[in-house]
Amino acid sequence: MKKILSILILSVGINAALFAQTPVAKNGALHVENGKIVNQNGAEPQLRGISFSWSIWGGRKYYNPAMVDWLVKDFKVSIIRVAMAVQPDHGYLQEPDPQKQLVITLVDEAIKDGIYVLIDWHDHNGNQHTGRSEAFFAEMAKKYAGVPNVIYEIWNEPARTTWDTVKNYAMQVIPQIRKYDADNLIIVGSPNWDQAVDIAAASPIMGFKNIAYSFHFYASDPNHQQKLRAKADSAIKLGLPLMITEWGVGESNGNGKFDHDETKTWLDWMETNHLSWVNWNITDKNETTAIMLPGAPANGNWTESQLTAAGIYIRDVLRALNK
After folding, report:
1. Residue 78 — left, alpha, or beta (φ > 0 → left; ψ -120 to 50 → alpha)?
2. 251 labelled catalytic
3. What is the pLDDT of residues 243-278, one digit of tens each?
């Protein structure tokens, strides 16, 4: 009996040790404190991972549990982003139930694997669909209330609009989430494709806790260099909590040059500022920012020959930093 008990205790200890290594077990529920996103111990967790592509077109085939498992096992991600298409054909506005199921499938697998997951309303014109967004996020919040893995990103990349417009949208959607989920992190966008964080910092959303802001860049884009970093530096100095919910190694059109020096500059900047980030994107296109080459299997299990230059680079970075 003593021998059996010892084996059981050892087995439980091993399982607990394995579980303790998951990003969510290590960091717990995220919250905002003193202008920073911090974990259950008050430390900045610096999560790093990859965004799924639009949940339509060629990227849709990768919306399956095996893909999440592969990214955790092979790429060592601590966070993924589920980019639910809203406005294009076959997106949420036209096909809400299938799109919602794609999101739930990935979110549930991320929870099972112990990583964080951004539920991204992938829309450039969120203010045109506020009611639909409110209903969607209310449903997600009711389903995932208190689950520490889940983060709500309520408007991906507002286009050429004003901060007042983005803020007004957020002030309508956030209460719908908070009806059911009082604490989980909510990420708010800013004008000009999540680049005007300095403007948001001058007049942040008040009255709600655990609100952070997304900041996007494309490392090789000529317009996304020191001037753009200065905007984020200004926002950070003003106490605006930031998360890089999308960035790519190429240029903002998804293509262009992969400049290794500029990419390293951006990576070093994110490390210096302890910012969590999600790289764009899980798709198999002939495109600079795509992770895989055309024809890469939909369930992962990729060889290096099936990865793009970006895919090889990001995999190496994640494996090095997410230890």
Report:
1. alpha
2. no
3. 999 999 999 999 999 999 999 999 999 999 999 999
- 282-307: pLDDT as tens digits: 999 999 999 999 999 999 999 999 99
In the predicted model, what is the mean pLDDT of residues 106-126?
98
Which residues make beta-bridge pairs with 52?
Answer: 282
214 contacts 194 by C-beta, under 8 angstroms: yes
**Which H or E run contains 64?**
none
Q: Kindly state the tokens that stand for 308.
A: 């793009």
Q: Classify residue 71 by its DSSP letter.
A: I
Q: Which of 109, 246, 262, 287 is catalytic?
A: 246
pLDDT digits (tens, 9 = 90+) for 74-91: 999 999 999 999 999 999
pLDDT of residue 263: 98
Residue 152 to residue 139: CA distance in whole angstroms: 12
**Cα separation, 21 vs 322, whole angstroms:** 11
Total residue length of the chain: 323
Strands 36-38 and 31-33: antiparallel
Question: Tokens 């951006």 sit at which residue?
Answer: 266
How many Å apart are CA 163 and CA 127, to the nearest integer? 12
- 307 phi/psi in degrees, rounded to 5: -100, 150
Q: What is the 3-state secondary structure (H, E, C) of 214-260?
A: EEEEECCCCCCCHHHHHHHHHHHHCCCCEEEEEEECCCCCCCCCCCH
Q: Which two tokens stand for residue 268?
A: 């070093």
Nearest to 314 by CA among 279, 288, 286, 287: 279
Examine the residue annotation and report whether 157 is marked as an active-site residue of this protein. yes
The CA distance from 183 to 95, in Å, is: 30
Q: What is the pLDDT, as a whole number, of residue 323?
A: 81
Distance of CA 94 to the CA centre of its chain: 24
Query: Which residues have a Cβ under 8 Å from the Cβ of 144 and sit 6 or more positions away?
Result: 107, 150, 181, 184
Among residues 134, 153, 157, 251, the one annotated as catalytic is 157
Q: Is the four-CA dihedral 175, 177, 181, 183 of positive or negative sign?
A: negative
Chain centroid offset of residue 180 CA: 21
The answer, yes or no, to whether residue 17 has pLDDT greater than 80, is no
